[in-house]
Structures are given as C-alpha cells and as structure tokens.
Hints:
Layout: H1 6-12, H2 27-38, E1 49-54, H3 57-63, E2 70-77, H4 78-87, H5 97-120, E3 124-127, H6 136-139, E4 146-155, H7 169-172, H8 183-189, H9 191-203, H10 207-215, H11 221-229, H12 232-249, H13 253-260
Antiparallel strand pairs: 1-2, 2-4, 3-4
Bound molecules: flavin mononucleotide.
Residues 14-16, 18, 126-130, 164 line the site of flavin mononucleotide (FMN).
Amino acid sequence: METKNPVIECLMNHRSFRKYKPDPIPKETIETILRAGIRAGTAGGIQPYAFIVIDDPEIMKKVSYIHGPLAIVAVVDQYRVKRYYELNDAPFYNDQAINLFISYWDATIALHNVVVAAESLGLGGVYIGMILSQDLQESLGVPEYVVPAGLVTLGYPDEEVDLNPRLPLEAVVHRNGYRIPSDEDVASWYREGDERWRDRFENEWSEERRKEFLDHGVTNRAQHWTIGHYTEEFTRNESAGVLRNLRKAGFRLAEAAEQDD
Ligand SMILES: Cc1cc2nc3c(=O)[nH]c(=O)nc-3n(C[C@H](O)[C@H](O)[C@H](O)COP(=O)(O)O)c2cc1C
C-alpha cells in the first residue's frame, strides 16, 4: 500500500511555476521558509552557504530572467567559514575540491528545503540554473570565497501547470551496484517525455519555429536540448563563467590538481 502524508503529497505534487501573481509574500512566510531551509543537514554543522533574498525588482532583473515577488540565491559561503576559522586560529584551505563540493551540496539541499517549505504553503517557483555562471561579485557584491550555487524565484502561482513526467523508478534506482542498461531500456525510459515533446513540436509550435529548429538539424527532444537550446557554444560560455567565478573568488583547485598529477 502506498504511504501518504502531507509531506509526501506535497513532494509528489511538485511542478515548476514561472508566472506569479503580483501579491507580495508575507514576511512571516518568508521567515518560515528560510528557517525550514537552514534546518537541512549540514556537513560538520558549519553551514558553508548563505541565502541572498531578493525582493527589489531592479536587483532581481540582474540575476534572473524570470521575475516574481521573491528570488533566493543560494551561495557557497566559504568567506564566512574563513572568517570563523581565522577567529579560531584554524587553517583555511582554498585549494580543496572536497570542501567546495560539500559546500555546493550543503547550499542546494538547504535551498531545496526552502522550496519544499514554500510549496507546502501554497507558493510556487522555479530554479534557474544559469546563476552558476553569473558574476555575483558584480551584481550582488559578494566577497571572496563566495560563489553561486542555486537560484529560485518564488511567488503565488498565476498559471495552471501539468505535472511533468519523470523517468520510471527502475531507470533511476540501482540496487547494490550500478546495472548497465540496454539501448532499449534507455530509449523506453525517455519515451513518455519524447512523445510529449513530439506532440508539442507537431501541434503547438508555429510553422516558423518548427522550421528554424529543423534547419538547425533538430528532429527530436535530445537534439532540441543539445543543438537547439544548450548548444556547444552556449554551454562552453556558461562553463567558462563557472570556472571564472571560482578563480575570481579565490579557489585554487586547478593549481591543486596540477600538484597532484
Ligand atoms: C538545477 C535546475 C536548473 C533549472 N534551470 C531552469 C531554468 O534556467 N529555466 C527554467 O525555466 N527552468 C529551469 N529548471 C526547471 C526545470 O526545467 C523543471 O524542473 C523541469 O522541466 C521539470 O518540470 P517540473 O519541475 O514542473 O516537474 C531547472 C531545474 C533544476 C533542478
């Protein structure tokens, strides 16, 4: 028998919302979701992340192309950690990949706690991935050792959105080791999403848009992403931004990797 409770129901009902009513989110609600966010587990109890809460439309425009009453940027905050270590005569390592990756992990689970809490209170939102390549030193004045980890925009939804499909559990779950799937397995797992895409491509897209994609060689959903949307040039530029952010923040991972070679 399936187990249901309000938390499971909230999780199973998740969908991304990109249009919001202009209604502001009450202060107490914002505080509640932020408090729920920081209750997430955190490596060593150090909380090497921070949330930058944005409700100023001008600042929101700088960090997000989707605008709502609220946006929350989660950042890796090794700056605060460094200050804390300095106060306690403890060394700070700026070249350790493990510290940085754990901080990303910490930041994004805390942000997701915020999102789940927000959804449980009737809010809706969407993550915006490309925050990772943005220069937050410029747009938000973050100090050294602070880099973007995630962004969500939030508000009261002003659109109807269907549940999006997910892969079947067997595609995602491996038991006691990784089982290499067959081509048929992989194709069948993505079929539902592929069929939805084809339906939209054939019945909802304008002739002009369809032609533009076909001219670029896009004939299926996978190609839509890799040739039509997240092109090689685009992803290279974004990747350069991510690495530039790390260097500019003071992380010296490449140097550490070279020493290890
Ligand atoms: C890491 C991450 C980055 C995302 N970035 C974007 C984005 O930049 N723009 C956008 O419209 N949606 C973005 N999304 C939302 C996904 O497109 C959405 O979750 C997916 O299409 C599934 O739809 P659902 O959330 O309604 O189930 C992102 C989601 C995640 C988890």
